[in-house]
Amino acid sequence: MFNDLLTAVPITAALSGNLIATLIFVAILVVLGFIVIGMYNKLVSFRERSKNAFAQIDVQLERRYDLIPNLVETAKGYMAHEKETLESVMAARASATQARVHVGGDPSNMAAMGELASAEGALTGALGRLMAVAEAYPDLKANQNMMQLTEELTATENKVAFARQGYNDAATRYNEYKQQFPPVLIANIFGFSDSAYLDLDDSPEKREAVKVQF
Where does it sit, as one GO cellular component term (predicted)? Predict the structure, then answer.
């Protein structure tokens, strides 16, 4: 019987050792699980902040596109001989509107974001040319509706610039965190894509170009 007890002690010790090892392994898995969940949630949070910041740009772009037809219609009554200039503005607006639709509120769509930046640049250029031509029409410059629309358009341009800066800052924070280790592993496993930066030529000089000097 004494021999049986001596034999049982190593077995019990071995079982206890295996149990401890199993518990340690499970504890490590639990800790790793919490770390993974934490990084995943942080990635989601940064990504959503980036999307929300882009939504602020989207709202102002929509407002900009809504103002342009009224602006062109008002100018048309005074600029009958500037048909090409007016049509170029509307064509640029149509391209920008389509590009905005292609983005669909998803700033991770690199191609669509590039298309939007290009279309916005063309639209800003077309508006600048329209306003330059409008300088030669004093009656148009004195039109109250034209004055109001121009002021609203300029204010919207400023809001777009401000919102774009906020979006690019949010995109930078998200992209930088996503590229760190180990978050990059989680991002790759779960398919997190970079947020594209929106590069628009919205310098003060460009924004001033869409404003008629009254």
Answer: membrane
Per-residue pLDDT of the chain (214 residues; tens, 9 = 90+): 545 544 555 656 555 778 888 888 999 999 999 999 999 999 999 999 999 999 999 999 999 999 999 999 999 988 888 999 999 999 999 999 999 999 998 999 999 999 999 999 999 999 999 999 999 999 998 899 999 999 999 999 999 999 999 999 999 999 999 999 999 999 999 999 999 999 876 555 554 545 544 4
CA dihedral 54, 55, 60, 61 (to 10 degrees): 70
Comparing C-alpha atoms, which of 70, 67, 77, 76 is closest to residue 97?
67
Pick the closest to residue 53 from 157, 169, 156 (CA basis): 169
55 to 104, 106, 124, 156: CA distances (angstroms): 10, 9, 20, 15
Domain span at 12: 2-209
Q: How far apart are CA 7 and CA 140, in angstroms?
A: 106
Specify if 214 maps to a domain. Answer: no
Distances from the Cα of 188 to the Cα of 43, 130, 142, 182, 193, angstroms? 11, 47, 58, 10, 8
CATH number at residue 189: 1.20.1440.20
Q: How far apart are CA 165 and CA 72, in angstroms?
A: 29
SS3 89: helix
Q: Which of 160, 40, 19 is nearest to 100 (CA)?
A: 160
